[in-house]
Specification:
By secondary structure, the protein is an alpha/beta fold. The protein has three domains: 199 residues, 3-Layer(aba) Sandwich (Rossmann fold), CATH 3.40.50.620; 51 residues, Helicase, Ruva Protein, domain 3, CATH 1.10.8; 94 residues, Arc Repressor Mutant, subunit A (Orthogonal Bundle). The protein is built from 17 helices and twelve strands. The strands form five sheets. Strands 3-4-7-8 form a four-stranded antiparallel β-sheet. β7 and β8 form a beta hairpin. The longest helix is centred in the N-terminal third of the chain and has 17 residues. It is elongated, with a radius of gyration of 31 Å. The chain starts with a strand and ends with a helix. The chain binds glutamic acid.
């Protein structure tokens, strides 16, 4: 058995792209499954476009997904440095070797050109099978460096993969056509060729290449929009990998066990927001009250919703959970639980569609008095439901006429969990305060 070493090699010229996150994931899964090593290497040879902030965004995105790596720019390792900008000497040595051995020559200016005999290059791609390319298709000789200290991508990738003992190059299909050049450089330098697997492109719903125009491509924007990392990870795994059964939901550990390159498809993988939403909803529903609370906190903070009563918050989040698809929806849905809930809804919202202002005001007064009679002990969802429904029916007040304004008085919303549940979560004192506030809205009607 060989010691698998795989890598993801993003260029820090933009925020972490969902496609790069998918590439990172597939590499990581293979490494974890095979007891190998997963490496991050930053390909920052483009000095103008490479930025520290993008580097941070990339690592933060991979961490958010829950990926771990064994060597990388942040943690180092035996084969570093892991930023290409810090590896110039290694490239210069390789370029010098090629020049000395007559395998490359100086081109225009200071450029260095690899000398290529016309030939057909054949290699096996784990996803696409046998790939054959004739060197005539790209004109034979090609530039590998702008100067002895300024290598092009092709040279740097090959030299680094060798130096870092990479056994499997798993990357996006956009690099398939580069592979021939990489193999030619490997042969000229006397390196072995690693295994290759090119992952299918990500497509938008119109089956065009996924781009900023057709959808959001920045991974961390999904975090900020209230997607859960475990949902995103699960969804990314299914972009181009098929478990060959109908299974849709996998934890990270389950993916480590199930993943295999033979399940990677050739055809482009459609990034469907609709599908992602349904996966997110599934994971959101699975969170325990404590997990839900923890995951929602940054969103509640952003929405300015605070409460000193954690139990109340947990109950409110749990009550809203079945209807939420994103943490952002959830945070805005529980606005009613805030300590400083302003209750600044429109008065008209209190009036049920088949009712009127005078009736509503009277019923709110009666409801306020009735709530006063109910003991703290009976302020549970079930008891409130039983007591209030019996009372409404006995007094023939109409359930719609009475319960609609109760819901609005407590939440300021048309849609919320049932009013009995909300009342039990808010507790007797807060319910009384909100009912009074609702009555006051009618003034001296
Ligand atoms: N730096 C390349 C990219 O960001 C990856 C090259 C590779 O994986 O070989 O697309």
């Amino acid at each position: 058995m060989i010691n698998i070493r795989v890598r993801v090699a993003p260029s820090p010229t933009g925020n972490l792209h969902v496609g790069t996150a998918r590439t990172a994931l597939f590499n990581e899964l293979l490494a974890r499954q095979q007891g190998g090593k997963f490496i991050i290497r930053l390909e920052d040879t483009d000095k103008e476009r490479s930025k520290k902030e993008f580097e941070e965004n990339i690592l933060e995105g991979l961490r958010w997904l829950g990926l771990t790596w064994d060597e990388g720019p942040d943690i180092g390792g035996d084969f570093g440095p892991y930023r290409q900008s810090e590896r110039t000497a290694v490239y210069t040595a390789a370029l010098q070797q090629l020049l000395d051995q007559g395998k490359a020559k100086k081109g225009e200016g200071e450029t260095i050109v690899l000398l290529v005999e016309p030939q057909e290059v054949v290699f096996k791609d784990e996803v696409r099978g046998e790939v054959k390319v004739h060197t005539d298709s790209f004109g034979g000789n090609f530039i590998i460096a702008r100067s002895l200290t300024d290598p092009l991508f092709h040279l740097a990738v090959v030299v680094d993969d060798e130096a870092m003992k990479i056994t499997h190059v798993i990357r996006g299909e956009d690099h398939l056509h580069n592979t021939v050049k990489h193999i030619l450089i490997q042969r000229a330098l006397g390196y072995a060729t690693p295994s290759y697997a090119h992952l299918p492109l990500l497509l938008d719903e119109k089956r065009a290449k996924l781009s900023k125009r057709s959808g959001e491509t920045s991974l961390l924007v999904y975090r900020d929009r209230g997607y859960l990392p475990e949902a995103m990870l699960n969804y990314l795994a299914l972009l181009g990998w098929n478990p060959k059964n109908d299974r849709e939901f996998f934890s990270h550990q389950e993916l480590v066990e199930a993943f295999n390159l033979s399940g990677v498809q050739k055809a482009g993988a459609v990034f469907s927001m609709h599908k992602l939403d349904s996966v997110n909803k599934y994971y959101l529903q699975k969170l325990s009250p404590q997990e839900l609370c923890l995951a929602s906190l940054p969103f509640l903070e952003k929405a300015g919703i605070t409460t000193s009563d954690t139990q109340r918050l947990e109950q409110a989040l749990t009550a809203e959970q079945p209807r939420a698809a994103h943490l952002t929806d959830l945070a805005s849905a529980v606005e009613w639980v805030a300590d400083s809930w302003p209750g600044n809804y429109e008065t008209a919202l209190l009036i049920w569609k088949k009712s009127d202002a005078a009736t509503t005001k009277t019923l709110l007064e009666k409801m306020t008095a009735k709530m006063q009679e109910i003991s703290e002990e009976k302020f549970t969802e079930n008891d409130l439901e039983k007591i209030l429904l019996e009372w409404i029916d006995e007094e023939d007040m109409g359930r719609g006429d009475t319960l609609w304004p109760l819901r609005v008085a407590l939440t300021g919303r048309k849609h919320s969990p049932g009013p009995f549940e909300v009342a039990s979560i808010l507790g007797k004192g807060e319910v009384a305060r909100r009912l009074l506030l609702a009555q006051e809205k009618f003034g001296s009607l």
